[in-house]
């Protein structure tokens, strides 16, 4: 949905220049076939945008002169999905489209109804990216995300149910600070009024968050930013696997490729030691593959077995 909506917005942006677009040129600018372009134009018409078409070899499209454009007609979940997708792209998750995504983000807000604009702007402003790649999990409910974002922005105390990792459920009253998108998960950083301390809460474990109507004066976060606070808390958690390898490449190159997931120690001009913790040996194998260099596993022994299994599977996949 987000890809289709993004392309539709791009089409609308081009048509809003109030010039005539030959069909072939417009399809080329959007990177779609003429048939897909016709479907996108039909979608704009269904949404109420008056797009005129001219048939024939020199056929093309333009918006009706002097037409008042209606707001973009999408529901709450679609709006959140679109803004989150564009926000991730604007952070550079996809090479070469960051600048375009920033422009589209600004245009999206202009064509949304005021109610939706307020919600998605709050989500955009109150979300702190943590720099770990990967899309957010679909388990983060859009309605919950926007409720949390509005409470962060408006400095309004929140109440919600929370299920801990061991399955225990408690009711929490908090002063929300920021949302953090870390890899595939969302977290709420907040001051827990019951425990009188800062906490990070996984959003997929939150239930029925609601504002209490009570305002608060924001406290000083005991970290450089919310993302650092969440990362520190995750690093303190016990992990089932501690991985150590020695790799045949400069430490600076290793840091560029997987430094944000690991600690890199220089052993020489073309050699380094890499340490990381992981919930899954599959994830560790993927990260080490990104090095694109020779390496030797020091620990754990299970990783060596995992890599041998992968090597055999890949060998069978490429054999005759």
Helix content: 40-55%
Query: What structural class do helix, strand and pairing data support?
Result: alpha+beta
Query: What percentage of amino acids are in beta strands?
Result: 25-35%
Radius of gyration: 24 Å
Topology pattern, helix = H, strand = E:
HEHHEEHHHEHEEEEEHEHEEHEH
Could you tell me how far the N terminus lies from the C terminus, measured between alpha carbons in angstroms? 40 Å
Largest sheet: 6 strands, mixed
Number of strands: 13
Shape: flat
Number of helices: 11
Which whole number gives the mean pLDDT? Answer: 80
Question: Keyphrases for this structure?
Answer:
single chain, 320 residues, alpha+beta, Arc Repressor Mutant, subunit A, Alpha-Beta Plaits, 3 domains, six-stranded mixed beta sheet, 11 helices, 27% strand
């Amino acid at each position: 949905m987000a890809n289709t909506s993004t392309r539709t917005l791009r089409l609308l942006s081009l048509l809003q220049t109030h010039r005539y677009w030959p069909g072939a040129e417009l399809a080329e600018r959007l990177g779609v076939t003429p048939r897909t372009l016709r479907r996108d134009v039909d979608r704009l018409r269904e949404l109420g945008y008056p797009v005129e078409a001219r048939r024939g070899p020199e056929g093309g499209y333009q918006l009706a002169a002097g037409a008042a454009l209606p707001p973009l007609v999408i529901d709450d979940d679609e709006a959140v999905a679109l803004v989150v997708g564009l926000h991730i792209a604007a952070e550079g998750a996809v090479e070469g489209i960051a600048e375009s995504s920033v422009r589209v983000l600004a245009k999206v807000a202009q064509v949304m109804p005021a109610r939706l604009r307020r919600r998605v702007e709050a989500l955009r402003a109150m979300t702190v990216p943590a720099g770990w790649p990967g899309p957010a999990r679909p388990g983060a409910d859009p309605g919950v995300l926007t409720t949390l974002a509005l409470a962060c922005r408006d400095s309004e105390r929140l109440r919600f149910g929370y299920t801990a990792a061991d399955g225990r459920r408690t009711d929490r009253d908090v002063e929300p600070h920021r949302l953090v998108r870390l890899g595939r998960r969302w977290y709420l950083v907040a001051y827990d009024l019951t425990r009188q301390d800062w906490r990070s809460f996984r959003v997929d474990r939150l239930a029925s968050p609601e504002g209490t109507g009570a305002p608060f004066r924001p406290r000083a976060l005991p970290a450089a930013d919310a993302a650092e606070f969440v990362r520190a808390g995750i690093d303190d958690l016990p992990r089932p696997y501690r991985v150590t390898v020695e790799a045949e490449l400069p430490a600076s190159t290793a840091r560029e490729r997987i430094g944000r997931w690991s600690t890199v120690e220089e052993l020489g001009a073309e050699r380094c030691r890499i340490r990381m913790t992981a919930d899954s040996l599959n994830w560790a194998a993927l990260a080490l593959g990104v090095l694109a260099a020779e390496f030797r596993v020091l620990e754990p022994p299970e990783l060596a077995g995992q890599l041998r299994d992968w090597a055999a599977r890949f060998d069978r996949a490429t054999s005759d």
